Automatic annotation (TrEMBL):
The gene is phnD. The keyword Ligase does not apply. Pfam families: Phosphonate-bd. InterPro entries: PhnD, Phosphnate-bd. This is Phosphonate ABC transporter substrate-binding protein. Keywords: Signal. It comes from Pseudotabrizicola sediminis. Belongs to the phosphate/phosphite/phosphonate binding protein family. Residues 1-20 form the signal peptide. The keyword Phosphoprotein does not apply.
Amino acid sequence: MKPLLLSLIASTALAGTAMAQDAITGFNIGILGGENAQDRMTSNECFRKYVEEAIGVPVKLFAPADYDGVIQGLLGGTIDMAWLGPSAYAKVYLTNPEAVDVAMVKTNLDKTYTYYSIGFARADSGITSMDDMKGKVMSFNDPNSASGYLIPRVELPQSGYSIEPGEFYGDVKFTGGHEQTIVAVKNGDVDAGVTWADGQGDWEDGYNSGALRKASDAGLVDMNDLVEIWRSKPIPEGPIVLRRALPQDVKQSIIDLTMGLIDKDKDCTYNIAAGETAGFTEVGHDVYETMIEVRRQQDGM
């Protein structure tokens, strides 16, 4: 996705085989997304406070360096909740289908929960479509990002744009994240890149939500300086997952908090959802079965 990713990293104490909420001594909230670490911490401070209030233990924020930090935390049992991109969820599920359960998904203003991989370039570059990228430098984000790599990796070659360096693009680079890609394109370090957006609203605002909206809000880029050159098919928004071994009362506290956040604090919801949203709604594993199969084929599993 993507786009801003939430994760709750919990320190829990076990009593025999059962866990209880009063046995949890602390939560660390990890956030993985398109912003730099400090901006992610700032955007999610409001959510940190609400979580601390809801579960009654000290809560800290943690911003991992890459997607795999959250993935491995979920698999290892140190991360209890995460807003994953669909590709990252697929990797968790394929590695251990018992590790997490799908709980919720972020919705757009029209109540849908899809987004797009958006290809973009500088408006003054003369690049107006992907055809113009022949022989130029293309950038992707993180290998575990759906919009930032997996979906373009599948769809671009289907349209004749091989992502192997030298076959269509002159070179292909990984920036490490959505914000890094946006800044690299803006600065002219690469000719074009991909990122995520809901595709709703106005381009001038960075659409209603997504990495472009966050970058525009932060003053990192004037959207009038960029142009869209490619758009993927709709992608199911990444799920908020809960570690299966969590005690039920903790799960319910976090679900209630997140589902009700839009009514409790719209500004906080805007911050953690990377822009305008109708809030969060329940979703099931079946939504991601196609993405899991694509990831399975990519990873040779």
